[in-house]
Design a protein that fits this description.
By secondary structure, the protein is α/β, with parallel strands linked by helices. It starts with a helix and ends with a helix.
């Protein structure tokens, strides 16, 4: 049987596409794979009211104000992205579920958007954490097959934070925790937050370390050119936080603690060789305390990475090599990123069927205790 050039090219292209999706090259249909999106944001009306109050009263108090709160929630221009973000952050029912259905997303793991409860005084922050987690648990109860959730808490008051962490897991059935990076310009390696890290380890639930605008100590250079947000400042800030956790010895003290980093690891995979190299040098000359392991070993043991808002195949390849396939999870970063684009990216990635299953659902099911 003769095959003309057009038929040959069509068959070859189909075979390559099938291979890139991990499907058989003979075109047989592939069994559907569960898609769990692991960094999907929401807000509550109570939080929005509190954010706007502090933003209007103290507009220069935090770089979070111009990079997020005011632009999204303070009368955004109708039809703008900010207006859509506001509407979709507040929706945990019809529009969100319709978007998931259209894109082929089976479940979202919901977490409160930046800056969460971390810019308020301790009493208010603790109260808002409770109401926010109740709001989240109610949404999951309405749609238990479609949503799981990460609890927020107020690091400003570690005692009450631990109490809320325990309630969130044991009573509300939530799947982990969200910390929107720095609190009062402090990071989780600070000794006062030790009870929080101890509780997360004891509860066997990860802390998703999500970016926010750079803390006041590093905010200056980010105020120009809109650099404080997702274009640069968010990743630099969260990556700095994670490096502090590694180099401080936190993971020597809490070896079973799990931290999740979004956005392909906030640049740490790129830096890992140099972190290993310089950690040894600084330990030898006395500039830092020696660690039990290399930074790269902590990265693989204690840190998981999601793809949220980062659809670059070459970066995904680096992340898999650096973190290990068992520590990589898929995410969209809804509503800030497009669900269909995120699905197309992961469906088109050159992965084996086993790798695809790990990234799309198995790792999330294991780490976040999802049935």
């Amino acid at each position: 049987m003769r095959t003309n050039r057009r038929e040959f090219l069509a068959a070859t292209t189909a075979g390559i596409a099938a291979a890139s999706l991990g499907a058989p090259a003979d075109g047989r249909p592939q069994a559907p794979i569960r898609r769990i999106a692991t960094e999907e944001a929401f807000a509550t009306p109570e939080l929005v009211k509190a954010w706007l109050a502090i933003a209007r009263a103290e507009p220069g108090s935090s770089l979070d104000v111009p990079t997020g709160i005011l632009s999204i929630f303070d009368n955004p221009r109708p039809g703008s992205n900010q207006d859509r973000f506001r509407r979709q952050l507040l929706d945990l029912d019809a529009e969100r579920l319709a978007d998931m259905e259209a894109a082929g997303v089976d479940m979202q793991i919901l977490s409160v958007t930046i800056p969460g409860v971390q810019m308020f005084e301790p009493d208010m922050a603790s109260a808002l954490a409770i109401t926010t987690n109740d709001h989240l648990a109610a949404a999951i109860a309405r749609h238990p097959r479609r949503f799981a959730g990460l609890a927020c808490f107020a690091p400003q008051d570690p005692v009450r934070a631990v109490r809320e962490m325990e309630r969130a897991v044991k009573m509300l059935g939530l799947n982990g925790f969200i910390v929107n990076s720095h609190t009062g310009n402090l990071y989780l390696d600070d000794a006062r937050f030790a009870p929080i890290l101890e509780a997360a380890q004891a509860l066997d639930r990860p802390i998703y370390l999500h970016p926010r605008a750079p803390s006041n100590g590093m905010a200056g250079p980010f105020r120009d050119y809109s650099m404080g947000g997702s274009i640069w400042g968010f990743g630099v800030e969260a990556g700095t936080h994670a490096v502090r956790l590694i180099l401080s010895g936190v993971f020597d003290r809490y070896p079973r603690l799990r931290i999740v980093l979004g956005h392909m690891g906030e640049a740490l995979p790129f830096w890992m060789w140099r972190l290993d190299h310089m950690a040894v040098r600084r330990a030898k000359d006395g500039r830092m305390k020696p660690l039990a392991l290399a930074p790269s070993a902590y990265f693989r043991r204690n840190i998981a990475v999601t793809t949220s808002g980062f659809e670059a195949p070459e970066v995904l390849e680096l992340v898999i090599k650096t973190a290990g396939i068992e520590n990589v999870m898929w995410a969209i970063d809804y509503p800030y990123e497009n669900s269909r684009d995120a699905v197309a990216f992961i469906d088109g990635a050159r992965l084996t069927p086993a790798q695809r299953s790990s990234i799309l659902h198995r790792n999330a099911e294991r780490l976040f205790h999802i049935e």
